[in-house]
Amino acid sequence: MASNWDDLKPRVLSAIAMTIIGAFGVIAGGIWFQMLVVFVTAVMVWELWMMIRSDEPTKGMLLAALVASVLSGQIADGTSLGLLLFFVVPIIGATQLKKEQVTFFVFALAIQVAGWGLVHFRMDYGFVWLLWMMSVVIVTDIFGYFAGRTLGGPKFWPKISPKKTWSGTVAGWIGAAVVGYIFTIFTNAGLWIIVISMVISFAGQMGDIGESALKRRMGVKDSSTLIPGHGGLFDRFDAVLGAALFLLLIASVFNVPGVAF
Fold this sequence. Notes:
Blueprint: H1 8-28, H2 30-52, H3 57-77, H4 80-83, H5 88-95, H6 101-125, H7 127-151, E1 155-157, E2 161-165, H8 166-186, H9 192-218, H10 233-253
Helix pairs in contact: 1-2, 2-3, 2-6, 3-5, 3-6, 5-6, 6-7, 6-10, 7-8, 7-9, 8-9, 9-10
C-alpha cells in the first residue's frame, strides 16, 4: 500500500509550484498569460518530438522555437488566414521523420490549437470562465488520483493506461460536478454548468488517455523528466489539452459568443 503513495510528496510540491505560476498567468492575463501558454505549448511539441525521435534533440528544439514564433504571430494576427500557420510545424516536423509522421502531425496540431484556444478563451470570455475550466481539470485530477489510489478496483482502460481505474474516473466526474455547483453559487451560471463540467471532466480524461496511448506506442514512461513527480509538461497538461479542444469545438459549432458569468 505504501508504494501507492511514493510519488505523493514530489507530486504535491511540483503541483504547488505549477499552480502558483499558472494562477499568476491566468489572473494577470494579457501578455503574461500569452507568454506562459506559448512557452508550455512549445515545450510540449519538443517533448512530442523527443518521444518519437530522441536521437535528434536539436531538431526538436528548433521546432519548439518555431512553435513559439508561429503561435505568437497567430495570437497577434487573429485572422482566419493566420490560423493556417497551425499546419506549418506539423508538416515540417512530419517531413523530418522516417516513422510516426501521422502521429507527430496529429498531436503537434492538437497541441497548437489547444494553446491558441486557451489564450482566446482568456481574452474573449475572461478570467472567471477560464478559472472554471481549469478548476474542473484540476479537481478531476485530484479526486481521480486519491479515489483511484484509495479505492482501486477495475481498470478503466488497462491496455492504454494501466493505473487509471473506474473509481478514479467516476470520482473525477463527481469532483467536476462539485466545481460546477460552486460556480452556480458565486456566478450567474445556471445549473447547466454542472453537466457541462462533468463533460469537460471526461474530455480532459480523454486527453490524458490520448497521451497515455502515445507514450505506450512510443515505449516511454513519461514525456520528459522536467517536473518531479509528474514527468513532463505534456504529462501535466494533457487533460487541459483535451478540455480546451472540446470547448473550442463546442464554441465553434454552436457559435458561442461568450459565457454569462
